[in-house]
Amino acid sequence: MKNVLMTISFLLLVTFASCQKSPSNPLQIAVASSVSVAVNDLKKDFSKQTGIEISIITGASGQLAAQIEQGASFDIFMSADESYADSLIDQNLAINKYIYGKGTLVLITSKLNVDSVKDIPSSNIRFISIANPKHAPYGKAAYQLLTHLNLWETIRNRIVYGSNVRQTLQHFQTKNADAAFVSRSILSHTNYISISEHLYPAIVHAAVLCSFNNQKSLLFLNYLRSKKAKDILQTHGISPYHKILP
Amino acid sequence: MNIYPLWLSFKVAFIATTFNIIFGVLLATLLSKTRFRGKEFLDAVLTAPLIFPPTVLGYYLLILLGRHSVIGTWWEHVWGEPIVFTMTGAVIAAMIGSLPIIIKGTRSALSIIDPQIIQAARTLGASPVRVWVTIELPLAISGITASTMLAFAKSLGDFGITLMVAGNIPKQTQTASLYIYDAVQSGDTTGAILMTVILTCFGVLVLYGVNKISNQHDKL
Question: How many domains would you assign to chain B?
Fold first, then answer.
């Protein structure tokens, strides 16, 4: 009995001790998995410039927003979909929205006879993976693209869903899907098929501040506006976005 | 409400459990009745899914049973459809996570049978197979039943492995757990609540039933 109590109190001690926040906390940035590769480059450059450490938490935009609503203590949220940032602001959970660009949807495929999206129906592609349109911005864009081109009903039975772009890419990388719609920014190579950006609604990426009195996170938001940051994002297919007013 | 995912979950769990009873009881017999090198290692490998992260298991399956793996290619050649992204994938996902429960439960139920009873039957001329069917299995039945119920409940709720290999396709592989996950992610909590309540009630009911069976066994 004594031993059991000793063990329990030891475990509790360890648990509480590890909960203590160390004074040199890294900046915690929740990042949509679709842009994680790009943000990783930003992280390196920012840390080199300022010496501030960053830790990146990835997930689907909707999933991360839900975590923030449940009280997750991220400093910054970089959503791939503006609407999640807006909804957090409406709930007073975030401030300072900044649109850091718009994303590029691309098609990747292992079939050599496919040169554009329109080739899919007649090709020997068995499975096409897209991120879940219900909560993943690039999945939504892929769905809208396919419906816009009147292809959705034709190829519907070939579509499988990843829970986010990362899993969609995994379906393709493990060769279980012959094609996938992903973000340009998740790819580390340029072997993809481009899609005209007029064919799907703009995927507007927005960053918000979630910790209200953290000087470091303000520094990062300012860094996002710098030319260097914009250049890095541009190389990953995240281009400047200017809202077109009607 | 769309109850198809719930129906699919029960269907998948039912098929998975049927196969699991066959494999589970045979493997448990092998492990408890025979002696061979590496027996405990085999037991460890078969039990591992119980403690492995579902993502790791799912990734293994995606590679091992994937469309370009040896098994996956053969399966697609014979049946015309792949394992991954189909109900077959969902069934295998449900099987992997719950097979250890049946193996463990049956193995321990078989091992507590008094060896004298078995020896008596053998000296009276019964073959090992006959002893197994007419004496050992009936004596172990409550252990087998209880672990089967637990295994059924576990496969009904499998999430991680299914998410990795089944592709989350509505009406085909979107089970109740995947549906709830989707609904919560997209902020549609009302859609998820009823299904969550049904799954919870069923889970508690199964555990209650398992306790009843175990108590009955103790009284004997």
Answer: 1
Residue A21 confidence (pLDDT):
46
Question: CA B138, CA B106: separation in Å to the nearest integer?
Answer: 12
CB pairs under 8 A between A and B: 53
Using alpha carbons, list the distances in angstroms from residue A44 to A4, A92, A232, B16, B94.
46, 30, 11, 47, 41
Q: What residue type is B72 in one-letter code?
A: G
Measure in Å the smallest separation between the Cα of A35 and chain B Cα atoms. Answer: 19
Which CATH number describes the domain made up of A27-103+202-235? 3.40.190.10
Helix ranges restricted to H, chain B: 4-33, 39-47, 54-64, 70-79, 87-111, 115-123, 128-131, 137-156, 160-165, 176-185, 189-219
Asked if the Cβ–Cβ distance from B63 to A132 is below 8 Å, we say no
- The pair of structure tokens assigned to B36 is 């061979």
Q: What's the CATH fold of domain A105-199?
A: D-Maltodextrin-Binding Protein; domain 2 (3.40.190)
Residue A61 near residue A83, CB atoms below 8 Å:
no
B169/A160 CB distance under 8 A: yes
pLDDT for res B71: 92
**Structural domain of B123:** 4-219
Residues on chain B touching A170 (C-beta within 8 angstroms)? 62
What is the number of other CB atoms lying within 10 angstroms of the CB of residue A163? 25
Task: Give ranges for CATH 3.40.190.10 in chain A.
Answer: 27-103+202-235, 105-199
Smallest Cα distance from B100 to chain A, Å = 27
Q: How far is A63 from chain B (nearest CA, A)?
A: 5
pLDDT > 60? residue A22: no
Cα-Cα-Cα-Cα dihedral sign, residues A24, A30, A34, A38:
negative
Query: A208: part of which helix (H) or strand (E)?
Result: strand A203-209
pLDDT tens by residue, B53-97: 888 898 888 889 988 889 989 998 999 888 988 899 999 999 999
Q: Do A161 and B181 touch (CB under 8 A)?
A: no
The CB density around residue A100, as the number of other CB atoms within 10 Å, is 23
B85 contacts in chain A (CB < 8 Å): 127, 160, 176
Test the A interface: residue of B62, B85, B86, B180 with most A CBs within 10 Å: B85
> What are the tens digits of pLDDT across the range B116-147?
999 999 999 888 889 999 999 999 998 999 99
